[in-house]
Amino acid sequence: MRKKKNIYIVQYEKLSAFLNGLNEIDVTNLESGKYELKFELVNKKELNKKSKSHILSFDEFTLQSIISDLNKMKTREEGIILLTSKCSSRFDFETLAKKMDIPFQKSDTIERLKEKIIESSIGYKLRSQAIQGSKGKE
Amino acid sequence: MSKNSINYLMKIINASVVNVDLELATSLGGANIEQSKQNFLKVHKKLINGIEQLDEKYDIVLIDCPPNFNIVTKNAIVASDYVLIPAKPDYLSTLGIDYLIRSLDKLIKDYNDYCKVDDDNEVDEINPEIAGVLFTMVQFYGGKPISAIRPYISQTKKLDIPVFKSYFRENKTIFADAPQYGVPVVLSNNHRQDIVAEINEFIDEFENKVL
Question: So what's the pLDDT on residue B148?
Fold first, then answer.
């Protein structure tokens, strides 16, 4: 019973700190009913995991340079080395695929995403050259 | 020149000419290389000879070929100034564009090489140009092609293959039964004027390219 009371107090204190931290506009909006508070129970572990998985390993500039480098490469192997060195998470690959306008599914594995990125940037040119022969685009 | 003043002749080469292809094939070959080359030219010029006999009331002759590269299709290419490539924006169809270009280059090279050895008859060299790839059966979402097909469109453009800006969209409702009644969708008074407008946009683009 004592332990439960402590939890209530701790949570009330958090609520109080949150309300005290609000600016005047937010308070006015709360009073007028335009805004409302929402309480939700969340699993901290899951939340941390989720927020970590949505952190990119590179900035916008690096993202553009990865795409530019991929488009200049002559072999799939070079592309795989670049992707492996620059992208570490699924979110990295998904962001890169989105930027390159490559469709993917949630069920795609990292390997599949990597393959799609390589084929859309290097593979299609190699394929075309192989079919058309020397006339294909360099 | 507006499209209303341009006379079109449409010839559809379909399954009914399959025997023609076989008959033409029997005329190929010869006792020696020179005779083989002359026969090659003779066989591949059948259609162009036929078209030359038409009166001059047509500005554009469209020859609709099946998706293969047999002698009848080769005849059509030899007779053409431009090659229009309709293709679906998917993996196999875009591979097919590369195969077509390769076959096209080989045909032009062979034909023009053989022209030089035919001393008895002066034969004009050919140089059919790729007018462009027209992506057909395109599915749209939010005013643009769906994400699954966009990579194939952009890859074709990046390969320096000419691609028409216009698309023919997938629409079974109006395209499925159009051949049954013999009236092209663009000429029928159907309720999808937006699709008719898209087709007209392509016609303008095509005519600007070839005329």
Answer: 96
Q: pTM value?
A: 0.79
Token pair listed for B208: 């600007």
pLDDT at site B198: 93
Torsion over CA: A26, A31, A34, A40 (sign) = positive
| C-alpha B46, offset from chain centre | 17
- d(CA A17, CA B71) in angstroms, rounded, equals 84
User: Which residues lie across from B82 on neighbouring strands?
Assistant: B129
Q: What are B81-125's pLDDT values in tens digits?
A: 999 999 999 999 999 999 999 999 999 999 999 888 756 667 889
Residue B2 has pLDDT above 50, yes or no: no
**Residue B200: strand pairing partners:** none
DSSP B33-67: HHHHHHHHHHHHTHHHHHHHTS-TT-SEEEEE--S
Q: What ipTM was assigned to the predicted interfaces of this complex?
A: 0.81
Give the residue with greater pLDDT, B163 vs A48. Answer: B163
pLDDT of residue B14: 64
What distance in Å separates residue A101's CA from the closest CA in chain B? 7
Interatomic CA distance for residues B72 and A83, integer angstroms:
48
Distance CA B136, CA B88 (A): 5
Give contacts of A133 with chain B, Cβ < 8 Å.
102
Name which of A40-54, B67-81, B84-98, B157-171 the model is least confident about. A40-54
Q: Do B98 and A103 touch (CB under 8 A)?
A: no
Give chain B positions within 8 Å (CB) of A101: 147, 150-151, 154
Quick one: which of B58, B57, B50 has its CA closest to B78? Answer: B50
pLDDT score of B1 more than 50: no
Count of H helices and E strands in chain B? 9, 7
- Residues across chain B: 211
- Across the interface, of B95, B105, B147, the residue whose CB is closest to A135 is B105
Question: Which stretch of DSSP H or E encloses residue B87?
Answer: strand B82-87
What are the structural domains of chain B? 3-210 (3.40.50.300)
Q: Tell me the chain A residues in contact with residue B160 when contact means C-beta distances shorter than 8 Å.
A: 137
